[in-house]
Amino acid sequence: MSQMPQLSACPSCEEPLESGDRFCGACGYDLSAVPERPADNPTIVMNGQASPPAGPAGAARPAAEPAAPGRPATVHQPADLQGTDPGGRELPSPAPQSPPSAGSPLSPASGVRFDRPPEPDEYPLQAPDPRIAAELPTPPEGTRVCVACRAGRVDDDGYCENCGHAQPRERDHMEHEAGPVAAVSDRGLRHHRNEDAFSLGCVTLPDGSPATVAIVCDGVSSATRPDDASLAASRVAGEALLAALPAGTHPQQAMHEAIVAASHAVNALAEEPATAREHAPHQNAPACTLVGAVVTSGLLVVGWVGDSRAYWVPVDRSSPPARLTEDDSWAAQMVAAGLMNEAEAYADERAHAITGWLGADAYELEPHTASFKPDRPGVVVVCTDGLWNYAEAAEEMAEVVPLDAAVRPLHGARVLVGHALDGGGHDNVTVALLPFPAPPQGAGSA
Q: Where in this protein does the record put region Disordered (predicted)?
């Protein structure tokens, strides 16, 4: 009577076993039905010679023919042996295989195939190949064409119908020049969309002198529809200024009224049906910050709510630059209260938490305005924190403003946006440049 194999665990349920167990105490498996483990008889020993042990059923393996000089020894194929299952029963014989023909990629020593299926020169693309664009019909005139394949029509969702490429959105990068004033806005390198907006304009005052206007808004990312808020505020504030100044309203009063009008426009975005609020009760009302400037022949007026800023940079860089606005932010409040110095406050993680903004859930609207009468020519930099985070102090801003920014404002705005992107582009970045004094109408970038 053969001895029961010694098992450490049940083959059925892996329950640990003790010596002498005939049945598993957990699942009742009959341990006597477990076949004995076959002896470990390697076919190739360490010296490379074949070992001819007997199989489980006692059948002897065919002996290998001795190798003749210059000819490899015969290697037996799996079909040369009669296989058995673990219980010792013979397995059906496999069908005989014909020897490899001449030129076959089978190895004569091992029977392993060394050939591979031919690989295609090119693998199929997930989307239609843009290179077949030449075969597509030319889209009708006025149709928006894909920037990638240059032939496919762009659908209403912003994707090419030919190659599937997502198209750049209109607000990802914007540039505009209005006479002597210019602005550039960019999405930056980290944000999925541009939530900044701006508006520019030139008007003639009642006395015939010129005036330039720039409004820059930064959407509050934690609020609902921040891009809509900044766009509405910039448009309404710009339109209000361009209407009030030719009518004779003092620029500082016109700036105050423009900020109030922008606030009403942003508040209106929150007037949604009750059902919309029920679907998203956790969302805040649309909100944004605002900073603007009006430049005339002898007066400079700025207005703001939030932490977007305005800087003064003189053409003569031997004169000191200056920051013209004070942030509505946690850091600014700490400095104003004497609780921290500026370096400590802006190093705190709460530094950029704003305390003032345009929106239906703002604590209280407090438009800030200030007027200046510079005694020398210069340029006014109106920007969001996407720029001033990389040139916070007035001296730092003056260092990155090109020397010819007053005569080439669009070029200067591009340089400043590039400075922010080179610094990391962590936020949307928008900047407008206004030369002081306001040049005569018709003057622009050189």
A: 24-140
> Within 13 A of 173's CA, how many CA atoms are on the CB side?
10
- What's the burial of 434, exposed, middle or buried (CB within 10 Å: 0-12/13-18/19+)? buried
Concatenate the DSSP letters of all residues of 17-44 into one string.
--TT-SB-TTT--BGGGSPPPPP---SB
For the chain, the domains span 144-169, 179-271+283-436
Q: Which residues of 153-177 are buried (b: 16+ CB within 10 A; e: fewer)?
A: ebeeeebbebbbbebeeebbebeeb
Instruction: In whole angstroms, give the CA distance from residue 2 to residue 17.
Output: 19
pLDDT tens string 7-19: 778 777 777 777 7
CA distance readout (Å), 250 to 245, 364, 385: 7, 24, 28
Q: Among all chains, which residue has been given the structure tokens 């590039």?
A: 418
List of residues 6+ apart from 165 with CB closer than 8 A: 127, 130, 146, 147, 148, 149, 152, 159
Which residue has 């109106």 as its token pair? 382
Residues with Cβ within 8 Å of residue 132, at least 6 apart in sequence: none
Which are the contacts of 274, defined by CB distance < 8 A and separation ≥ 6?
none
Pairing of strands 287-295, 300-305: antiparallel
CATH topology of domain 179-271+283-436: Phosphatase 2c; domain 1 (3.60.40)
Please give the Cα distance from 256 to 102 (Å, whole number): 95
User: Which runs of consecutive H residues, i.e. helices, occur in 215-279?
Assistant: 226-244, 251-269, 274-279
426, two tokens: 């962590």
pLDDT tens sequence across 318-369: 999 999 999 999 988 898 899 998 888 888 888 889 999 999 998 889 899 9
